[in-house]
User: What shape does this take?
Amino acid sequence: FKIVKYNKRRGNIVLSRRAILEAERQALRQETLANLEEGVILEGTVKNITDYGLFIDLGGIDGLVHITDLSWGRVGHPSEVHQVGDRISVKVLNFDRERERVSLGIKQLTPDPWTEAESRFPVGTRIQGRVVSLTDYGAFVEVQEGVEGLIHVSEMSWTRKIRHPSQVLAVGDIVDAMVLNIDVARKRISLGIKQVEPNPWDVIEEKYPVGTTIEGKIKNITDFGIFIGIDEGIDGLVHISDISWTRRIKHPSELYKKGQEVQAVVLNIDKDNERFSLGIKQLTSDPWDEIPRKYQPGTRVTGTVTNVTDFGLFLELEEGIEGLVHISEIPKDKHGNPMSRFQVDDVIQARVLNVSRDEKKIGLSIRKLEEGDEKEIFRSYLSNRNEATSNLGELLREEMLNMNRQARAEEETEPDAGEEPEASEPVTADTAAAAPESADEPGTGTEETSEAEEPSGDPSPEESV
Assistant: This one.
């Protein structure tokens, strides 16, 4: 101890150890200041810990080790590395003699690990590391003390859509990853964990060639189609245009529900863009393949009006097959409006004008149908009239021929002199001679012929014969 005060009259003595310590510290301080210079490695004791670093007692003077200079690796808080009273070695990074401030570093005692990172972690190398941090865009993995790599969220799964790394990883997890890229100058390493496993898209084309029929559950329904689960993490899209050949679908939910089991045909696989196209309508043949044969031009068809527009009528000829009767092919009514006499659900007839297989269109006409009906009625009338005249002439001719044959037969078979002719049919020379001439007389036929009336305007029986 050092006597700092003495009172002889009272007999009091004041002793102080602090004065001795300060004197010793001052002496030590002078010695330390004499040896301080940048790059020097010194021994010190951890005197205090703050959020931003450690204060180290070097001997009469304190220096600060900032948190960024504690380790080449990631440090959350200085207390994770050292505790008060720890005896450690430090390196002088900077010394301001005027302000007597000393900047120290601990990580500088070892070489920067990034100097050997490129040779130690070449692209394509499979490494193991610990997840030290998660962000919205990925996970940071410490592959070596002081060397961290980033696994971007897009490199976490071949098939799953990862929205946040926490869906797959957690801080502290030990993971296997593949080195995708390394930039030593910027101290960045790009890693991927999905590359550790084979890409299912590389074999999906072999497993499900185009034309294959698959079955799966509906995972999602959107405005533009439905997604069907195929393999783990791989969904196929059935576009709304590939659901039905003929039915007009406003939204897929009209026909399907989430979780429903459905069948579909593989239409296309785009491995580069990871797209799998499916079709449901392709399970059956296209009805339009038979439409041109079934509805040839000139065919009379019956359909139900499904829509009345300014430019014409739409007729449903069969389920999903519609034809258009253009306004120009609809006869006008007495008011001059061709559309006024038609309503939705009316069942009407029309005639096929044309069929387009490629455009899936059928042109119909009501005008042509009605005109055709009128011509058919007129032709039928003329045919019936000619047929009646022709039949009458044939009957007259046949009857006269029968009369001539009968007269000749009577001439050839005259009765003997002793025989008397039958009273009902007297035969004389005069009647026999007159029989051939009677063929030219229309009034001397049989009773059936005499009763036939000649229609007015028809040719005479002689002209018909």
